[in-house]
Amino acid sequence: MAIWFSRSRKIAHFLKPKIAPSEFLYKICSNYANSSSFRTLGGENCRNPQVFSDYSTTILAFRRRWWRPESTRAGEQVETPYSDDDYEDENQALDFPGGRVTFTPEMKFISEASDKRIPCYRVLGDDGHPISGSRYEQVDKETAVKMYKSMVILQIMDNIFYEAQRQGRISFYLTSLGEEAINIATAAALTLDDVILPQYREPGILLWRGFTLQEFANQCFGNNADYGKGRQMPIHYGSNKHNFFTISSPIATQLPQAAGVAYSLKMDKKEACVVAFTGDGGTSEGDFHAGLNFAAVLEAPVLFICRNNGWAISTPTSEQFRSDGVVVKGQAYGIRSIRVDGNDALAVYSTIRAAREMVIREQKPILVEALSYRVGHHSTSDDSTKYRPINEIEYWKTARNPLARFQKWVHKNGWWTDDDESELRGSIRKQLLTAIQVAEKTEKPPLAEMFSDVYSHLPSNLHEQEKSLRETIKRHRQDYPTDVPV
Amino acid sequence: MLRIMGKKLGAPGFTALPAGLALRSYSSSAKQMTIREAINSALDEEMAADQSVFLMGEEVGEYQGAYKVSKGLLQKYGPERVVDTPITECGFTGIGVGAAFYGLRPVVEFMTFNFAMQAMDQIINSAAKTNYMSSGNISVPIVFRGPNGAAAGVGAQHSQCYAAWYGSCPGLKVLIPYSSEDARGLLKAAIRDPDPVVFLENELLYGEAFPVSAEVLDSGFCIPIGKAKIEREGKHVTITAFSKMVGFSLQAAEILAKDGIDAEVINLRSIRPLDRATINASVRKTNRLLTVEEGFPQHGVGAEICASIVEDSFGYLDAPVERITGADVPLPYAANLERMALPQVEDIVRAAKRACYRSLPIAATA
């Protein structure tokens, strides 16, 4: 948002720079610190003018012009010697539907791009040490170890199920490789009462909340123990008891639904929020606009998390949108937003803790953009080497690996050793292979499950169809598959 | 998008009465109630009975409803239960679906079902299929309602009938009232139903008044979903119809009676589930069938009914089944063309005579 102030040349002629520009910026900040529209990132930074002035533009892109008009280009930030009194001058303002605006004789377009992109919040360096000046919420040993272990389990689970698909044992799989920190750190920062509306690359949340490897395998094999009764493709997990809504394939439909769930949660006055995920591609859907707009208007307690992993199947973000990523879209809806390094488990943890607290306390939505990279292919139906260089994938898989970075930190704290690592990896691998074998051998759901749950109660026409099908099976037993119980 | 708002066709006498008390008594003993009043009173009573029921849609609150159907509800229940939404069908449908997922019972109003096409994914992929795809873990007790079908001179994008579209989708229930008794009873049943229900109203019928008995006026009144109603008994030919076409069929039946043809008119009330039993029983009695609908001919409701009769009662037919439908064109605007593109009473009369062999079948005259 640009706020620009202008003066007619006549009056401006008499103004002199009264205070230094950076001091002036600080004054502007503190002036507006109390106004609700600026209680944003910029508002918080106002207390530290040094930090604020490091940003040439922030979410509050202050633009001013000299009292001499010819020196500016649209989008350039120029310091100006205006006094605070300007803001209260009633003659310079107009009432319109939507509120009061100051007016200007100068025609100025807001630039489509800022000079600098919104920086992302980061805590850990690549070497696993916290970067200097970083502020974050401390994580105790128990939580940190659970986080790291879960990231490892997620990674191994992804690799093994992917292989199982390649071997033809399951029909489809979709990995979260490269996004383990987003998955697990977010899950660790939430409570079990927070309702999750996932896209499809967030199984780590379920894993954290206690979904077992066997339960994952059962869903992928669509067997009788699958909570989904074999009705969905693999990876479309859902679990009421873990407060994880069943995954639905169409992209971004869960975003307006999240606002609806939050509306209901708000009426319950629960100490919890709704957390809705989407990827960078999902932000192009109409539902993204509707969901965020509505959540802001209805003041719904939704935490929107966008996993910007750079790719929507083969579409890179440069072809997905022309904005500075997703974080800048928040303000367009009147939603407070932040960009975080999604491969930094501690940064994600701190961000989600803070965001969740704000969402619940203020009963307003918040948007978090977690930057990351989709190391795996979009799914088993994709070969991403066809549209991106292999060395790029390798780079993100190794040098920018979120597990390695977090592991260095837990290791440095003396909470994790190499022996722990190999023991965990070996044990999980064994458990997964067993789970797959068990799931594969388990019977498929019985015939009745084809007709149930279409409606709450079985209607007469489906009852007749089921009867007719059973009679057909009896008459032609040899045509009916043997592994489906009748 | 052009919005035809508050077109008060057929409602010249509607006055500002409080919700639930808008009754006009005539000199006859039966009370009269318009469809508008019927829907309004049904909404009012269900919202009073269950705190989780709420209404959401464009203009439903401050404007009292685009067709004044939700008149008085905002004043009575407040903005938390009567929610005016921004113009985004896929947005507010998605919100409604999400609220239903989590335990509320939303009634989502579309200004017309033509605009609901922008929310089609939320209705079909989310509302209709979720109970099944979540294996019963997430139920969707939502009602989608609004005007459906042709009005008068509103053009192609405001006039389509969606009965066949929604009727083909498993997971949905599709209801379509004709009279005020239908409107009250079916809407109450829809709101109480645990499954997603599409409730197709008709703009031109909003102002039409029908007699209602004391039983219908009772707040507990409900019509079972999936049962058709025989509006007029007869023995020579069965005419199935829904919504406004029921009225046309009844008029046609009066004309036919003068010629000695006794037509049985069935008001379907429920497109999904379709009451095949009632239709088949009637055809087995009369041996002749006409289906009447406003919608497009291909893949329409009449096609489904015809297939159903062929499957269950082929041997009973004494004449081919005829479908009377709207023309296979986007509905034109000009009044003369619009009239020719929609079924009229004369079309039903002529078709009934063909079915009774009182006149030659169309093929023979070609």
UniProtKB/TrEMBL annotation, chain A:
Protein name, as recorded: 3-methyl-2-oxobutanoate dehydrogenase (2-methylpropanoyl-transferring)
Domain Dehydrogenase E1 component: 148-446
Recorded family membership: Belongs to the BCKDHA family.
Reactions that this protein is recorded to catalyse: N(6)-[(R)-lipoyl]-L-lysyl-[protein] + 3-methyl-2-oxobutanoate + H(+) = N(6)-[(R)-S(8)-2-methylpropanoyldihydrolipoyl]-L-lysyl-[protein] + CO2
E.C. number(s) listed in UniProt: 1.2.4.4
Biological source species: Abeliophyllum distichum
Cofactor: thiamine diphosphate
CDD domains: TPP_E1_PDC_ADC_BCADC (cd02000)
Entry's Gene Ontology cellular component terms: mitochondrial matrix
Keywords, in A-Z order: Metal-binding, Mitochondrion, Oxidoreductase, Potassium, Transit peptide
Annotated InterPro entries: Alpha-ketoacid_DH_E1_comp, DH_E1, THDP-binding
Pfam families linked: E1_dh
GO BP term (any one): branched-chain amino acid catabolic process
Superkingdom as given in the UniProt entry: Eukaryota
Subunit structure: Heterotetramer of alpha and beta chains.
Compartments, as annotated in UniProt: Mitochondrion matrix
UniProt-recorded Gene Ontology molecular function terms: branched-chain 2-oxo acid dehydrogenase activity; metal ion binding
TrEMBL record, chain B:
Cofactors: thiamine diphosphate
InterPro entries: PDHB_mito-type, THDP-binding, Transketo_C/PFOR_II, Transketolase-like_Pyr-bd, Transketolase_C
Keywords of this entry: Metal-binding, Mitochondrion, Oxidoreductase, Potassium, Pyruvate, Thiamine pyrophosphate, Transit peptide
Catalytic function, reaction form: N(6)-[(R)-lipoyl]-L-lysyl-[protein] + pyruvate + H(+) = N(6)-[(R)-S(8)-acetyldihydrolipoyl]-L-lysyl-[protein] + CO2
A Pfam family reported for this protein in Swiss-Prot or TrEMBL: Transket_pyr
Tagged with keyword Mitochondrion: yes
Class of enzymatic activity (EC top level): oxidoreductase
A GO molecular-function annotation: metal ion binding
Localization: Mitochondrion matrix
Gene Ontology CC terms, in alphabetical order: mitochondrial matrix
Main location: mitochondrion
Domain Transketolase-like pyrimidine-binding positions: 33-208
UniProt superkingdom: Eukaryota
EC number: 1.2.4.1
Function: The pyruvate dehydrogenase complex catalyzes the overall conversion of pyruvate to acetyl-CoA and CO2. The pyruvate dehydrogenase complex catalyzes the overall conversion of pyruvate to acetyl-CoA and CO(2). It contains multiple copies of three enzymatic components: pyruvate dehydrogenase (E1), dihydrolipoamide acetyltransferase (E2) and lipoamide dehydrogenase (E3).
Subunit structure: Tetramer of 2 alpha and 2 beta subunits.
Protein name (database record): Pyruvate dehydrogenase E1 component subunit beta
Organism, as annotated: Abeliophyllum distichum
